[in-house]
Amino acid sequence: MQHRRGPSTPLLGRLWLLLVLGTTLSLLRCASAQVKKRVADLRWKPATATWYGSPDGDGSDGGACGYGSMVDVKPLRARVGAVSPVLFKAGEGCGACYKVKCVDRSICSRRAVTIIVTDECPGGYCSGGNTHFDLSGAAFGRMAIAGESGPLRNRGVLPVQYRRTPCKYPGKSIAFHVNEGSTDYWLSLLVEFEDGDGDVGSMHIRPAGSSEWIEMKHLWGANWCIIGGPLQGPFSVKLTTLSTSRTLSARDVIPRNWSPKATYTTRLNFF
Q1: Residue from 42, 22, 26, 45 nearest 34 by CA
Q2: Which of 180, 168, 161, 150 lies closest to 269 in space, CA to CA?
Q3: List of residues 6+ apart from 219 with CB closer than 8 A
Q4: Stretch 44-56: mean pLDDT, rounded?
Q5: What class does CATH assign to 45-164?
Q6: Phi/psi at 211 (nearest 5 deg)?
Q7: How far apart are CA 78 and CA 81, in angstroms?
Q8: Which of 155, 167, 193, 257 is the most exposed place for a label (fewest CB within 10 A)?
Q9: Beta bridge partners of 228
């Protein structure tokens, strides 16, 4: 009687190798898809730019994001910028960082300036779905070659290129500012010094003694709030970025005896 011969050892080895390779490729595709999902678009795109304030000034005070006097001091000073609604995103674009450079080589350097979204420019060049940056006079002038900052500002509106860039606040950790008017029944927070994406897509809060995260509502600009109560601290806060959905949780960052207009700093950041 003839016995049916099973697969030879070399054949089994090849089948095993094909199985391993197929599994590896599937994992790599999955990992690649996850990475792509979590990386902001860094390509250069066309836009226009203007400037406001004094020619060598740092830009306006405050702004539609609600950062207040923070825009007057480093690391924001002179890097603040107003953007059109397509980038402002009803306030969820606040805190995002961009590189902006002008393209006319006869007067522009190749140096790009970094700006942080702190305000919205709703009219003029900013309207009609246009992508527009309204920069401080100092930032606008830094795009020029040496000695040409004045003539560059005299041009008014300028064609530029822009792209997202990671926000970097060396030596800073994410902080939560409790907005004026907050009570045990209405708590409003502003996020400060967020590395990486810089923007906020959602925020959650967990009161003392609770195991559940409660979603906060986007109020205006970079401000988020929760209505309920009485709300009891300490509060843990979780934020998720708008651009890449990265998440960070700060446990008990806002103490039991919190107070309005106070800022509470974490030991955390995305970089």
Answers
A1: 26
A2: 168
A3: 188, 225
A4: 89
A5: mainly beta
A6: -105, 0
A7: 8
A8: 257
A9: none
How far, in Å, CA of 45 to CA of 6, rounded? 61
pLDDT in tens, 65-117: 988 766 555 666 557 789 999 999 999 999 999 999 999 989 999 889 999 99
Question: Domains of the chain: which residue ranges?
Answer: 45-164, 175-265
- Both structure tokens of 19: 């199985």
Name the token pair of 204: 């959650």
**């994992």: which residue's tokens?**
27
pTM: 0.81
Distances (CA, A) of 239 to 57, 130, 204, 215: 33, 29, 6, 10
- Listed in sequence order, the DSSP H helices in 7-142 are 9-37, 85-88, 137-141
Q: Is 19 helix (H, G, I), strand (E, B) or coil?
A: helix
Report the relative pairing of strands 223-227 and 217-220 from DSSP bridges. antiparallel
What superfamily would CATH give domain 175-265? Answer: Expansin, cellulose-binding-like domain (2.60.40.760)
Is beta strand 175-178 parallel, antiparallel or unpaired with respect to 214-215? unpaired
